Amino acid sequence: MSTTHLGHVFHIAGSPTVDTAAAALVEIPDGALVVGDDGRIVYRGPADARPQEPDETVVEHESAFLLPGFVDTHIHFPQTYSTDAYGGGQLLEWLNTCIFPAEARLADPAFARKVARDFTARRIATGTTAAMVFGSAFPAAQDALFAETRRAGLRIVSGRGIQTVGPESAAPLLTSESEAIAMAADEIARWHCADTGDPRTARLQVALVPRFSLSVTTRTLRSLGHLYDDVRDRGVYVHSHLNENNRPGTGEIDSVKTLFGVESYLDTYDGKFLPGSAVGGPSLLGRRTIMAHAVHCTDDELARMAQTGTSIAHCPVSQLFLGSGTMPWKRTVAAGVTVAAGSDVGAGDEWLISRVLSDAFKVHISEPGDASVALHPAELLFTGTLAGARALDMEDRFGNFDVGKDADFLVIEPHRWPPLDQALRHGIRADDPELARDQRLFTLLMGLREPAIAQVYVAGSRVDDLRAGARPTRDRA
Fold first, then answer.
1. Angle at 403 (CA atoms; ends 402, 404), nearest 5 degrees
2. If I label 214, which of 63, 253, 320, 463 is the partner at 20 to 30 A Cα–Cα?
């Protein structure tokens, strides 16, 4: 028996690039999503043209919008309570003053369970159906995160944050080289694809997560490379930070290049982490590798990421918060790298991916000279949905409403947030239907706030009531 959801549909159809997203933008004002019992979309189109079944269940969402679920490609679980933390400086000062001490608190299993519950609840509230999650250093906290996510029915890729060296403020988070690899391997064994056993369908998946190159040694990188060679074909991911802060002399990038003696920051993840960028072990780059930030990449680094299929989690909110600069949109996209949205909670203080997209629009239209670009509303929607699925190498499963994909979607009711409702009802719209469509989507994305997200579905199952402790069930009403 199928379930039909009626509403105002927006999505990016097919498999475009960000440059061709506008041509792939689909709006169906009186639309229908028909979802089969397996949670997959069997029809997407005008409601009056859908196939009729005698036992069809219809869910009338009235004036609501139906959008694909948001995908967050970079968010920190142990920083759930660390948004808007005043650190008195940029990245490295903020880590020492605010973040390392905050993350150390998750050594307490009871506290970690609370964080996991609140983290998962915020994901539901903000419509983040899939996420690449930078994990805690503590295995018990990771167990709580995976268990809570499984109970909720959301999609997650996560791995414990690996640190084998660091300042005194990070001491509680550090392990020996051998412990780091052993715990990473154990996490993979226990949690990777623990729900279905198949990386093509699993909602629970694991990543190898060196915090950043300054938190590991050449021995750690070599061992992680060998471990990844052993598990790469099982669909395990890699996640870390790249080229975030370039303050001359004492910033992250110069510190990495000086410490390792390498020509570029990316070399340390590409197996070329010995002096002179000599090869010291296997590469960590590939189709299931996501590097956060990439604000200050060289052309060679961008070309190498495109060549290997490595993706970028673009985090404009946190880059503003830490004064890290602006990722050059035109140059990065032109290199052929997949760029997806990341909230970077807690340096990012916006959980809602549409708010991240709002800041992306603002920072990139403000880039100097010819670098300035006014992102099309379809490019914004693509970056927050389909590009994220592509970065997670799961584009064939979710990210839009193509027939055969899992029905991951949000029900947005503008009346729940009056400023959004008023802007959609009374804002100026062009006479040209296509431009009016683009203006409507832009207002929806820029004006969206949490209260307007009325329902959240993953693979056809409604999950938005789980904050009350319910288990996910197919919505039949």
1. 110
2. 320
Chain centre to alpha carbon of residue 307: 21
Which residue carries 């973040």 as its tokens? 99
Q: Is the pLDDT of residue 438 over 80?
A: yes
Are the CB atoms for 123 and 76 separated by under 8 Å? no
* DSSP 8-state code for residue 69: P
* Amino acid making up residue 407: A
Neighbours of 250 (CB within 10 A): 12
DSSP code for 472: P
The position carrying tokens 């035109």 is: 330
Please report how many Cα atoms fall inside a 13 Å half-sphere around the Cα of residue 252, on the Cβ side: 29
Query: How far lies 168's CA from each of 229, 259, 458, in Å?
Result: 32, 18, 42
Please give the DSSP secondary-structure letter assigned to residue 95.
I
Alpha-carbon dihedral sign for residues 76, 79, 85, 87: negative
**pTM check: above 0.90:** yes
Distance set, CA 241 to CA 76, 213, 225, 295 (Å): 12, 8, 16, 10
CA torsion, ordered 72, 124, 106, 83, to nearest 10 deg? 60
Task: Say what the pLDDT of residue 469 is.
Answer: 43
Dist. CA 61–CA 48, nearest whole Å:
15
The mean pLDDT of 294-312, rounded to a whole number, is 98
pLDDT tens-digit series, residues 327-353: 999 999 999 999 999 999 999 999 999
Q: How far apart are CA 108 and CA 164, in angstroms?
A: 20
What pLDDT sits at residue 55?
85
The predicted pLDDT at position 467 comes to 44
From CA 178, how far away is CA 86, in angstroms rounded?
A: 35
Q: Residue 91: which residues within 8 A CB-CB, separation 6 or more?
A: 244, 245, 251, 252, 322, 324, 347
SS3 (DSSP) at 383: helix
CB atoms within 10 A of CB 474: 15
Question: Which residue spans within 350-452 are E strands per DSSP?
Answer: 409-412
Handedness of CA 223, 227, 228, 230 (dihedral sign): positive
What is residue 472's predicted lDDT score, i.e. its pLDDT?
Answer: 46
Measure the CA–CA gap between 458 and 465, rounded to whole angstroms. Answer: 13
